[in-house]
Amino acid sequence: MPVRALLIDDDTRLAELLAAYLTPHDVVLMHAPDGPRGLRQLGAGGVDIVLLDIMMPGMDGLDVLRRLRQQWAVPVVMLTARGDETDRVVGLELGADDYLAKPVYPRELLARIRAVLRRTAPRAPDRRIVVGDLEIDPGARLATIGRDALPLTALEFDLLLALAERAGRVVPRDALWEAAGRSDTVVNERTVDVHVSHLRAKLGDDARDPQRLKTIRGAGYLLVREPG
Fold this sequence. Notes:
By secondary structure, the protein is α/β, with parallel strands linked by helices. The chain has helices at 12-22, 35-43, 61-69, 85-93, 106-120, 154-164, 173-179, 189-202; strands spanning 3-8, 27-32, 49-53, 76-81, 98-102, 129-131, 134-137, 142-145, 148-149, 170-171, 213-216, 220-223.
């Protein structure tokens, strides 16, 4: 079945170029020239992945991403200006799954689309991982505490799974990103810290005195087996 990608970008020429390249590779490209229309198209359903430009007039890509993440868990690849690390870091902190610098090369974009969809696709049925009252179903990509499902982004789920698979052990900051399957995305330490902070909040942990997900100063992160 073809992948349905939504490009939110005010560059009509880019949309035409990408559509011409992606269509023969089983990627149907839909195009929204601005943020509000992109969000409306997302609301209509039928989107497998979003390709989101940051630099747009009116509502920029970061604002779109903030609103998008409030409602949908669809994978997002950010399109950023070359060399603009700040935009890339903020995009990842807000829940983007990957980024690609402009100018966009269609072949590289196709590879990124496929990689992101592989990472975020449901896995084959596997044993569930239980850490205290936290239960993770890798096959369904679902994490619950008690009966409550956690509203995790794809990246947050991957980070939590990596920590849960190593519960009771300290995972170094740089090793955590790789263990989550994100070694193809280069980020700085602050980005990892911010995502762990978001994850801690969704776990219901106290930021000042966390009982589930601890920061071990100078070492890394620890998911406690039996939180107090």
